[in-house]
Amino acid sequence: MEEVKADAAKWMKVKAVWQFFEAEAAGEALHLFAPRAKEPLLTWNFKRQKIGDRLCLSDYILPAKDGKRDHVAVFVVTAGEGVRERAEAAKGSGYYFLSHGLQSLAIETAEACAEWLHRRIREDWDSRTRRK
């Protein structure tokens, strides 16, 4: 696995994008807006949990009140391009450990990037709200 990691370090490049959106909850729907826009850019419809408190992701967004909206940060991360192709090529050549190792490393790398970015977004948001 150390060889897999050493090789991947040469070509695997973490990438991420994120953006803050104004948000409103409406039942099980979550509406995302451009700043001060009247119509949503996007609406996600979420399902409620079937047991327990029957929560839904939209329950965590404040409803619009007096023209003020909540905010949501949306982000996507990747361990980089070429992982799938390299893993499939290794598998096709009979190098199953290499194939599984690359895929596992990519998943864990992307997950670590998501955790890091989530922390940075929270820190950025906290510093913005303290300045107001």
Broad shape: elongated
Secondary structural class: alpha+beta
State the share of residues found in helices, binned by percent.
40-55%
Q: Alpha-carbon distance between the termini? A: 49 Å
**Estimated radius of gyration:** 20 Å
Strand count, sense and barrel status of the largest sheet are: 4 strands, antiparallel
Indicate the low-confidence ranges by residue numbers: none
How would you write the strand order of the largest sheet? Answer: 3-2-1-4
SSE string, helix = H, strand = E? HEEEEHH
Q: Could you tell me the number of beta strands?
A: 4
Helical segment count: 3
Average pLDDT: 92
Q: What is the percentage of strand-forming residues?
A: 15-25%
Short account of what is shown:
By secondary structure, this protein is an alpha+beta fold. The chain is built from 3 helices and 4 strands; from the N terminus they run αββββαα. Helix 2 (83-92) runs antiparallel to helix 3.
Based on the model shown, name its key terms.
4-stranded antiparallel beta sheet, alpha+beta, elongated, 132 residues
Plain-language structure description:
Strand 1 (15-26) and strand 2 (29-33) form a beta hairpin. The protein is α+β, with helices and mostly antiparallel strands. The chain is elongated and about 60 Å long. Helices cover 42% and strands 23% of the residues. It has a 4-stranded antiparallel β-sheet with strand order 3-2-1-4.
